[in-house]
Amino acid sequence: MEAEFWQKKWRNDQIGFHLDEQHPYLLKYWDQLGLEGSGRVFVPLCGKSNDMVWLRAQGHELLGIEFSPIAIDSFCKHIGGEFIADQVGVLNRYTGQGYSLLVGDYFALDRNIVGAVAGLYDRASLIALPETMRADYVALQRELLPIGAQILLITIEYDQSEMSGPPFPIGASVVNSLYADWCDIELLESSSEVVESSNKSVDIIECCYRLRVR
Questions:
Q1: Own/partner pairs for 88-92, CB < 8 Å, 24+ apart?
Q2: Is the terminal CB of the chain with fewer CB neighbours within 10 Å at N or C?
């Protein structure tokens, strides 16, 4: 998915993927990851997610990266307080209130930029990417995350003949193909609901996985 696609979504305020409330799976299962409250959590393609606010309230420092400066600007205004702007590599960075928010290309990240992280939260990142980008997206995480790091991954599944992405369907077989070589995978819960898309009723299955880097 080209960057301009998402830039246009933010410019036109077409952000149906943004949730005003914290995701129920995050609230229900985050404690099961066993991360210390002070552990740093990485949120790729973070948008202006309120899930980051909840994670910060648990004591975590937050590292987020997002391509759209509109999203990060909106999040900083929502949080309030002072954010210091600087640049790290080719990325713009806004630091304050326990957040380090990067603006730019996810694939520009490296270990020096990311630093030590204990966990990763992915609610709307992997499902936002077309198949051609997923392997590279996950491969970079493999380089960045230390052994023992925990991932809470939320995906969706649906019949692609009934609806087209994004968000794209990510089945269990895809999760296994991307993560099984380097993570232990546990399905915590799946639930389904019927949504309307293009005058069709589509059954959406939402899945929550816990992954541990080994």
A1: 88/113, 89/113, 91/65
A2: C
Question: What pLDDT does 6 receive?
Answer: 56
Identify whether the C-beta of residue 107 lies closer than 8 Å to the C-beta of residue 151.
no
Tokens of 125: 């990142």
Q: What is the residue range of 174's domain?
A: 3-213
Side-chain-side CA neighbours of 3 within 13 Å: the count stands at 9
Is 207 strand, coil or helix?
strand
Q: Write the DSSP string, 63-106.
A: EEEES-HHHHHHHHHHH-S--EEEEETTEEEEEETTEEEEES-G
CA atoms within a 13 Å half-sphere pointing along the CA-CB vector of 23: 21
Tokens 């914290």 correspond to 22
CATH number at residue 101: 3.40.50.150
Give the chain's length: 214
Listing DSSP states for 129-173 in one string gives S-HHHHHHHHHHHHHHSPTT-EEEEEEEE--TTT---SSPP--HH
Give the predicted TM-score (pTM) of the model. Answer: 0.91
Q: Is the peptide bond before 44 cis (omega within 30 degrees of 0)?
A: no
Give the DSSP letter of residue 183.
E
Partners of residue 197 on adjacent β-strands: 200
**pLDDT < 70 stretches in the chain:** 1-19
pLDDT at res. 38: 76
Q: What span, in angstroms and rounded, lies between the C-alpha atoms of 16 and 22?
A: 14
* Domains of the chain: total: 1
